Amino acid sequence: MHEPDLWSMLLVFMLATFVGFAVIQNVSRLLHTPLMSLTNAISAIAVVASILIAGEQKTLVSTVLGTIAVAASMTNIVSGFLITDRMLKMFKQRGKKPK
Amino acid sequence: MSPALAEHVSQAIYLLAAGLFIFSLRWLNRPETARRGVLAGVVGMSAAVLGTLLHPEIASYLWIAVAMALGTAVGIPLSRVPLTAVPQRTALSHAFGGLAAGLVGVAKYSLWLGEGLLTPFRTGAIAVEVILGFLTFTGSLMAAGKLQEIVPTRPITYRGQNYVNLALLGVAALCGIALVFDPSRWPLFAMVVALSLVFGVLLIIPIGGADMPTVISILNSYAGLSAVAMGFVLDNKLLVTAGALDGSSGFILSLIMCRAMNRSFTNVLFGAFGQVQAATASAVQRAVKSATPQDVVDILENASSVVIVPGYGMAVAQAQHRVRETFDQLTKRGVKVRFAIHPVAGRMPGHMNVLLAEADIPYEALVEMDDINRDLPQTDVVLVVGANDVVNPAARHDRASPIYGMPIIEADKAKLCVAIKRTMNPGFAGIDNELYYADNTLMLFGDAKAMLGEIAKILGSERGIH
Questions:
Q1: Where are the domains of chain A?
Q2: Under a CB-based contact definition with an 8 Å cutoff, are residues B317 and B449 in contact?
Q3: Which residues of B271-304 are buried (b: 16+ CB within 10 A; e: fewer)?
Q4: Which of A57, A78, A85 lies at the smallest CB-CB distance from B71?
Q5: pTM for this model (two decimals)
Q6: Which domain holds residue B407?
Q7: Model ipTM value
Q8: How confident is the model at residue B274 (pLDDT cuts 50, 70, 90)?
Q9: Does residue B288 belong to any structural domain of this protein?
Q10: Are the C-beta atoms of B127 and B192 separated by less than 8 Å?
Q11: How many CB atoms lie within 10 A of CB B148?
Q12: Is position B382 within any domain?
């Protein structure tokens, strides 16, 4: 495994933060609660790292920790996306009948 | 597939996922496209997970499958909580995010320690990941406990608290720095883990219930940053991107919350809001004008514009469906009814909008504070339901008031204000509200749900007469 390139990582971090600021400033204030549950589900992408650690099975400690981390991230993915969609379904326009 | 090709495929999938995540948030800018955003997120996530599962390094799928089943089993009920409990659920999910980051950090440290692969860069990144992850974990658990009222919501403070907290964090950081110079000293690493766990608890105990919207947002930001640190540890740019999106979202929400309370970031974290604050209650018993539901109906019917100011009290009283009935009846009569939403109404950013949307109130009727304030002087009636501090005019002029300087919904500027309240007892923060004594304010004493039910009933039975 090679050493991560600090500067290119920092560049990605900086650019992603700027994109985040730009995109999130445009999110409707109506939707700030769903925004939080959605970003939460997205940052649970950490599951990819946990999956590798749990699956490599190099040591008992790393397998156990990885497995717990997969479970924690998976909880966030499932509940985060589901509750976001549940809340968004409630926002209706005037005169439109609920589906 | 050759290992080189597999690597290209997984990198391409990660690139796709990062793009989809950005679109996911982009589509959240309007309620009409928002659900497409969820779909984009789900597609991105599924692609990334499937791509990872194909990785040749995976020796066994057993524990992955068990953990995924467990996460799903916990996640589904967590997504069905009542909307009043969404803030607790959110705090809990920040805790899970922090836990995952912290545990991955510990696992990587132990693996690389054994393999002799701990470089100074990796060790430093792991230290940051572990500190952020574990402090988010315990801090968010405390916040969830306070929101669920398992843990006392009252701020717990003692002398020199801030110094103790800062010293703790400082020691954890010093241990982390020492580790960079000699990564093999694992007791130092254990210290970092332990101190971060304790720091998370101590950081949240002095924070009161009224500050929860800000605290949840700050913890959201930390959870995102811990994912970024994980990305640095594992050389994974998708993690850095997703974490940065989460972190910047939490940061923006924190700023909005702080601005809405006229407080600074440091003031929320180190100011212990709600402590002591000797209420500046004037001893003088002033007169209020009280009204009956029938009086209020007469007033509302003859108005041409009505603005309802909801607060968390409305949700506690489960009154939002009665509010909707009143809204429907008045709208039918041609009265223009809108809702004034203060940014900190409720227990987390945007909470009030979700609660009203659940009661089938169309979102066009939900208006932000700054926009509605412009219209209030021309508004006939403002109806305050379960809101208190956010309509207190003392915030504008009383320098002694703890809420001085906080932007408010200027209910007192409307032609007439009706406030539904159980008793004259000052609210949670213990601050007297002079709005209730104003000449153009009528008080309707009683439970919000019962009173609004009464109003909606009278309005409903009168239909046809008008």
A1: 32-92
A2: yes
A3: bbbbeeeeeeeeeeeeeeeebebeebbebbeebe
A4: A78
A5: 0.92
A6: 293-461
A7: 0.94
A8: very low
A9: no
A10: yes
A11: 15
A12: yes
